[in-house]
Amino acid sequence: MKILCVATKLPWPPDDGGRLALWLTLQGLAAAGHRVRLIAPVHAPPDAADLATLRSVCEPQPVHVPQRSWARAAAGALRQRTSLTVARHRHARVSAAVEAALRDDRPDVVHAEQLQALAHCDAAHAAGVPVVLRMQNVESDLWAQVGRARWRFAPLRFEAARLRRDEARALAACACTVALTQRDAHALRALAPGARIVAIPPPFPATLDAGAPRPGAPALAVAGSAGWWPNRQGTRWCVQHVAPLLHAAVSDARLHVFGGTLVAARGVVWHRAPADARTAFPAGAIALVPLHIGSGIRMRILEAFARGLPVIATSTAAAGLQVVSGRELLIADTPEATVAAVGLLAGDPSLGTALVGNGSDYLRRMHDSAVLTAELVAVYRAAAERA
């Protein structure tokens, strides 16, 4: 099939969960013999080596756009009667590039990666080309959770309401919407009864190399973030609440934070965001995924499974995965429970070995690339046949 993919960012390098999900999807489509043209905005010219890597799976077409301030986005949102985040990602140059691509080489289907990318697909609707929207998460639910988390973020609840309206319109307009989890699919169906919505998890390889070992007995690895607030909050929770208890209970333990804002605390080692993803998954370490706000799938959990690290995650982080605490990972929602889980793994190496083996089996069973790519292509074909 000829697929035009419209995204909000280039997926390589895959340095966040959203990029990684799209990158692995493009790999699967390329391996199955499908032709994908990718249009995405960029704020600076991409690195030549990165473009070469992208060309191994698709025909990348980066579109240079200026970075838009939140103030200008707010004005645009009022003018367009849309949500702030959709207005911030809407760029006339990207829409023009999509329109030109439809005219020059009409695709069988347009794949819009995320609600914000759909803003550039009006020309596809007008031309009768079916649009399949993939929602990596329920955006309105995320903003509502952040709005409830802290009083100073309360205005975000109004943005969540506007996002719900945008999501409902998008779901009704698209030929089909693909969610990454059944949980998200259920939430989206409630927003737009009657819309075609399916759940297809992202593909993920069952095994990947781990990084070089890091000091600590045990060493623990957590991803820092300078961007999305829930990720920063999870890292801060680890540093401020878990690390002191951990140091008191297991003085030789070390919490390694990769990326985000510089942190300094006893028993905590901060590292710059690594260029090589495996660096953030040191061999022999325990992966912590301490999110308290989330939707979609935590790609970091899947990556830890693949790289052979036992995982301790909050129930929010693990939501959407069909996993059981004690089988593929350990669930811990409080600092005390997290330290207790670390103690279990440190005291019983066979438990970590079992979790790692079951995590790898989970990836083979639930995230096989060939199987999930075939499911996604079936959605494309059905949309094209209905057009």
UniProtKB/TrEMBL annotation:
Ranges in a coiled coil: none
One Pfam assignment: Glyco_transf_4
KW Transferase (keyword) present: yes
Domain Glycosyltransferase subfamily 4-like N-terminal: 26-203
One GO MF term: glycosyltransferase activity
Keywords of this entry: Transferase
Protein name (Swiss-Prot/TrEMBL): Glycosyltransferase involved in cell wall biosynthesis
Species whose genome carries this gene: Chiayiivirga flava
Native organism taxonomy: Bacteria, Pseudomonadati, Pseudomonadota, Gammaproteobacteria, Lysobacterales
